[in-house]
Amino acid sequence: LWETGQESGLKEITKEFIYSHFASRGLNYGATFQPLKWIRTNGERCVAAYHLADSLLDGASGYSLHPSLLD
Question: Could you give the percent of the chain with pLDDT greater than 90?
């Protein structure tokens, strides 16, 4: 199931790997701007899970999609 990323044969890429990879290329994100929880891929397609940081939840109702999730 692509919606949950539980299809067999998908490789999981962890949040720690993703953000350390970005940092190695000069893209440093603070905790508030690290919404990805994981990415799973079969090499052709990807599915990801993300969440809005708790510190941003109070002001989130004014957005359809919070800007921190787009970064």
Answer: 14
* DSSP sequence for the chain: -TTTT--TTPEEEEHHHHHHHHHHTT----GGG--EEEEEE-SS-EEEEE---GGGSTTGGG-SS-GGGT-
* Calpha distance 55→47 (Å, rounded): 25
CB within 8 Å of 71: residues ≥ 6 apart: 29, 33, 35
Query: In terms of residues, how long is the chain?
Result: 71
Higher-scoring residue by pLDDT: 71, 61: 61
pLDDT tens-digit series, residues 46-65: 888 888 888 878 878 887 77
Contacts of 29 (CB under 8 A, 6+ apart): 19, 22, 23, 71
